[in-house]
What we know:
single chain, about 250 residues, alpha/beta, Leucine-rich repeat, LRR (right-handed beta-alpha superhelix), 3 domains, four-stranded mixed beta sheet, 5 helices, about 15% strand, disordered N terminus
Amino acid sequence: MLACPGLALLLFLSPSNAQPCPVVCKCTSFGSYGYEVNCSSTGLTVVPMLPPHTTELYLQNNLFTTVPHGRLDKLQHLNNVNMSNNTWDCGCDIIYLKTWLEDQEAISLADVKCFTPASLAGKPLSQLTGHDLAQCTQIKKCPDFVYNDILLLLSLCILIILLAWSLKTTRTTTFIYDFNARHADMELQSLKSMKPKHRWKRSDALAKELLEEDEAETPLTTDNMEILNPILHILQTKHNIKLKAT
């Protein structure tokens, strides 16, 4: 009874479960030593996903132009690789394959040659220089940075102007809060459009009208005025707020 669970665990840990053999390729198992994956002369145009335990890989005589980035990173046990006689395009995308091949000790880069562009046809990847791939490492021109900086500075200037305008508007605006027991809500009167001199006159006139109305109904007592006057003075001088007491 214990043999079945042990067999299931062994199959689960087997390398064959990690990545299946590509359909058009022929895979030969070496047991614990990995796989031989032979995809040569199959007409493939894209390098397929490969078992990570591959030890021998044959991709020659196909129509590969490049290798997707990261496609070969899991192949850590390779002893033999053949990628010759393919239509490799030595543009910017070939950098990944060139770098990967340079890290493989058992691979000869001399057999992997450029097919396109015409100026590099037949040139081994091992002989590609920075001049051949100069278009892949172009530095961004200064005008591109200048335009971005100008847009950023304009946005910052607009923000500063808006903040300054808001601050100026707030400092030059006087609000009168009228707490009147005869009304259910608070009355807000803005004197922002007036000059300072006119605002003071308007405020005095409103205060006088309010006091005249209140004197006819409920005059303020002396004690209330003694408490209210300091509060009104502080609000008026420090916060530019005037309260009309009722």
